[in-house]
Design brief:
Structural class: alpha+beta
Number of helices: 22
Helix content: 55-70%
Distance between the termini: 34 Å
Oligomer: single chain
Length: 549
């Protein structure tokens, strides 16, 4: 009380806000409740949105690498071969970087899956056997069975719960998998055998092959065919559609093309001439039925369907579904043909870090370890150029969608605080008009405009501070009992956050910064709303105010 007496403005503000004195105190309490409810709604909704975003990131990043390291030739992506890129050694070097949790090969593709009662197109990716850090991120989602593939040489797989339900599979069942790429090759072969032999459709071309040496010049070392004749043959060979050529046709034309290019200006020896003429005769005598039979037979070599035993079922979040199927790396390489010819090939390297939201510094360190393979080689005729893609770029649209949704939600809900501020401003104007004569008496007794403004400013500060504190307390209470409140609202068909689409319970993030920011925002808006009417009333003429009714 002594402190209040020393501050006239604060003392009068407290007396005006005393709920036992006048009707205006009831209105003040309503404004206090409005501020508290506005702060509570803002904090609750933003905390739930932030919790949902973190939950989505946690679940989504369980099977999404934080970085993907791939190679390209300047235009198209290229696989990484062990002989040229030494990716196992590169994987070990990146694993040793501070902040890196795990590094594992990337190999994924589409395939047709046949289960007990259905078939569907699936997306599969790989697990590297014995790579425990890669498995640790997936274990929390394991529903049945195991992620352990042992040495990775057994034909086993782990499928998502949704895929298991659609295909009618359970642990121990067999899944028949056929790569999509093989189906494309089947379609190409079928399309090819519907047409006649391409070279036989052009008898003039076959005659030109047999008559290549008709105008040849005899030299001591052999016969020199005019360069114009060879170039014309090369151009005609280039005009053929390679997708429609039978295998024997393609091999023969490639051989003719190479020999013609190598003998521009150079003579053919007797042996080379005889080989040319023999190949031309064989090409003219190709049997279509026999060549079609070879093409159909080659399908059994291209298509590599595989029966896989289901050893595990995992539950992916419904809003960010992961791969349909996980395969051990060696099995996946066999399916897509990346282990052929003794080459250990992968699509890229996946990196998981300690903090997925801090990618710039780690990306720079990763780039320093990547070897320079720009020089053309047998595997990479145009050289190999590296790409390091962070997950925020791969999922950039989704990431910005969630962030923008939170921003827009904050903006829209801030209107609640703004409306409360306008209401408080209206109350202050009304109170100032009702106490116009009292204020005039204070001015006549020597109260300065600053003292008069202080009365209403203190009222705004008290309402704003009290409403903000009460709003934070209510928000903590609502967030603590959010599941019970949601269940009660769902029972009345009024659930504002249905979680069926997310496959998770209602999350919430208790972030002190969010609580403090919304409380401070409400406090400032209410205080400013109180200062504006105080400014006008403090400038009134006391003599006119005392004479007015």
């Amino acid at each position: 009380m002594k402190a209040l007496r020393r501050n006239l403005s604060l003392m009068l503000a407290v007396r005006y806000l005393n709920p036992l004195r006048t009707m205006f105190s009831i209105i003040t309490l309503i404004c206090l409740g409005g501020v508290a409810l506005g702060v509570m709604v803002l904090i609750v909704v933003l905390s739930v949105m932030e919790g949902l975003q973190k939950e989505m990131e946690t679940r989504g990043l369980a099977f999404t690498p934080h970085f993907i390291i791939t190679g390209h030739d300047g235009l198209n992506p290229r696989t990484l071969t062990e002989d040229d890129t030494h990716w196992p050694e590169l994987r070990d070097k990146i694993s040793a970087l501070p902040g890196v949790v795990s590094v594992y090969p990337q190999l994924e593709n589409e395939a047709f899956a046949q289960g007990n009662n259905a078939r569907m197109t699936v997306h599969f990716t790989t697990l590297e056997p014995h790579n425990r850090p890669q498995l640790d991120a997936l274990l929390p989602m394991l529903k049945e069975g195991t992620f352990d593939f042992g040495d990775g040489l057994n034909q086993e797989c782990v499928i998502s719960a949704t895929t298991a339900q659609m295909l009618g599979l359970s642990l121990g069942d067999q899944l028949h998998l056929t790569p999509v790429g093989s189906i494309d090759e089947i379609a190409a072969v079928y399309s090819m055998i519907q047409a006649p032999l391409q070279t036989h459709e052009d008898p003039a071309f076959l005659d030109s092959l047999r008559n290549t040496f008709a105008q040849a010049e005899t030299t001591p070392t052999g016969e020199r065919v005019p360069a114009a004749t060879l170039r014309a043959l090369m151009q005609r060979i280039e005009s053929f559609d390679t997708a429609k050529l039978r295998l024997s046709e393609r091999d023969a034309l490639y051989a003719f093309y190479d020999e013609a290019r190598d003998h521009l200006g150079l003579p053919f020896t007797a042996e080379e001439k005889q080989r040319w003429l023999t190949r031309a005769t064989e090409l003219a005598e190709l049997d279509r039925d026999r060549e079609d039979g070879k093409a159909v037979k080659s399908i059994t070599e291209m298509v590599m369907p595989m029966d896989l035993e289901v050893v595990g079922i995992y539950q992916a979040p419904e809003n960010m579904p992961g791969p349909h199927i996980y395969l051990p790396l060696p099995i996946a390489q066999d399916i897509v043909g990346y282990g052929s010819n003794g080459k250990n090939e992968i699509m890229g390297l996946c990196v998981r870090s300690v903090d997925p939201n801090q990618t710039a510094a780690l990306e720079a360190r990763i780039r320093t370890l990547l070897p320079n393979l720009n020089t053309p080689s047998e595997s990479y005729p145009s050289g190999l150029y590296w790409q390091v893609i962070p997950w925020t770029k791969s999922y950039e649209q989704w990431y910005h969608l969630i962030a923008n949704e939170r921003t827009m939600m904050s903006f829209v809900l801030s209107i609640i605080s703004l409306i409360a501020s306008f209401c408080i401003m209206a109350v202050m104007f009304t109170m100032s008009m009702q106490r116009k004569r009292e204020i005039a008496v204070l001015q006549a007794l020597g109260a300065t405009p600053a003292k008069i403004m202080g009365i209403f400013t203190w009222q705004g500060i008290i309402i704003g501070l009290g409403g903000a504190i009460l709003g934070v307390g209510l928000a903590l209470l609502v967030l603590h009992y959010r599941l019970e409140i949601q269940a009660a609202m769902a029972a009345m068909d009024m659930d504002p956050f249905p979680m069926e689409a997310h496959g998770i319970t209602l999350p919430a993030a208790f972030t002190p910064g969010t609580f403090a920011r919304q409380a401070l925002q409400a406090f400032l808006m209410v205080t400013i709303a109180s200062v504006i009417p105080a400014f006008f009333i403090s400038r009134q003429d006391p003599s006119k105010a005392l004479r007015s009714n």
